[in-house]
């Protein structure tokens, strides 16, 4: 099944803002083609995951540029404490992803499971956002790093959202909204880069069919550009804003997916799940 160039560009453009906001980029890349009945929804599952890797590569490259000042500051301040925080936040998703990646891809990438991830994440974000704001990122301990790590591991389930899960975890640990966002970003780049390299190597060994190489490259380029152009979204989330609007959006999208599923399973309709 081919991947139309227009669809690849549209999904790449969507990926940037969806990655920067706590609404699940992987969930959107999966359910938007399904909701719109695009041919790309019927791509071979391995190729669809490979396309997501290409989008993440474009987004990660853009994040390294847009967050370069923070990255440089972190490198200047690198020491045992920072290494401990990054390592503990990286270990759970890396280990669980290595062991359970295949079962997760096979069983938890359906529209129904993605809707479940959107709704569960929305409920957790709404609950976490009610917590007091009395800690800053410099207060982060090993327990905080592990909490962020397990949040990132939960985000391996499509629809949960890495950004949303880590923001919720940090807010549950009573970090301010601004510092929760800073911690979420700091633990994001290592896991995004690691996952991109790991899956990219697997893709290299398998190879990309010649007919979809151009759409893959176009999607990655669109994700790169849309991420660069959406940097202001980071600042919008950080301006002491509640997570409730994003939780409400996730509920609306999850409900739309469930409604579509219910209609497709009604008597006389062909299931599209």
Brief account:
The protein is mainly alpha-helical and 273 residues long.
Your description of this structure?
With 273 residues, the protein is an all-alpha fold. It starts with a helix and ends in a 9-residue tail after the last helix. The chain has one domain. It has helices at 5-20, 25-35, 45-66, 68-76, 80-107, 111-128, 142-154, 162-172, 177-206, 213-229, 231-238, 244-264. The protein is globular and about 50 Å long. The model has no long low-confidence stretch (mean pLDDT 84). It has twelve helices and no strands. Helix 3 runs parallel beside helix 10, helix 6 packs antiparallel against helix 12 (244-264) and helix 7 (142-154) packs antiparallel against helix 8 (162-172).
Helix-strand blueprint:
Layout: H1 5-20, H2 25-35, H3 45-66, H4 68-76, H5 80-107, H6 111-128, H7 142-154, H8 162-172, H9 177-206, H10 213-229, H11 231-238, H12 244-264
Helix pairs in contact: 1-2, 1-3, 1-10, 2-6, 3-9, 3-10, 5-7, 5-9, 6-8, 6-12, 7-8, 8-9
């Amino acid at each position: 099944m081919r991947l139309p160039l227009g669809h690849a560009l549209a999904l790449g453009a969507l990926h940037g803002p969806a990655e920067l906001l706590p609404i699940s980029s992987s969930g959107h890349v999966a359910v938007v083609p399904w909701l719109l009945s695009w041919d790309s929804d019927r791509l071979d599952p391995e190729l669809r995951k490979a396309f997501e890797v290409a989008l993440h590569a474009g987004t990660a490259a853009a994040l390294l540029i847009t967050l370069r000042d923070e990255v440089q500051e972190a490198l200047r301040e690198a020491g045992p404490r920072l290494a401990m925080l990054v390592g503990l936040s990286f270990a759970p998703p890396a280990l669980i992803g290595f062991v359970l990646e295949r079962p997760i891809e096979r069983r938890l990438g359906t529209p129904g499971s993605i809707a479940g991830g959107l709704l569960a994440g929305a409920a957790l974000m709404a609950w976490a956002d009610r917590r007091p704001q009395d800690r800053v990122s410099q207060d982060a301990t090993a327990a905080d790093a592990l909490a962020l790590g397990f949040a990132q591991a939960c985000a391996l389930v499509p629809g949960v959202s890495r950004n949303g899960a880590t923001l919720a975890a940090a807010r549950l640990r009573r970090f301010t909204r601004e510092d929760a966002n800073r911690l979420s970003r700091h633990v994001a780049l290592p896991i995004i880069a690691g996952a991109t390299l790991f899956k990219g190597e697997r893709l290299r060994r398998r190879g990309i069919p010649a007919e979809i190489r151009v759409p893959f490259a176009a999607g990655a380029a669109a994700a790169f550009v849309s991420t660069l152009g959406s940097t202001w979204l980071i600042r919008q989330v950080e301006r002491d804003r509640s997570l409730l609007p994003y939780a409400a959006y996730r509920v609306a999208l999850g409900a739309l997916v469930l409604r579509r599923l219910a209609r497709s399973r009604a008597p006389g309709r062909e299931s599209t799940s």
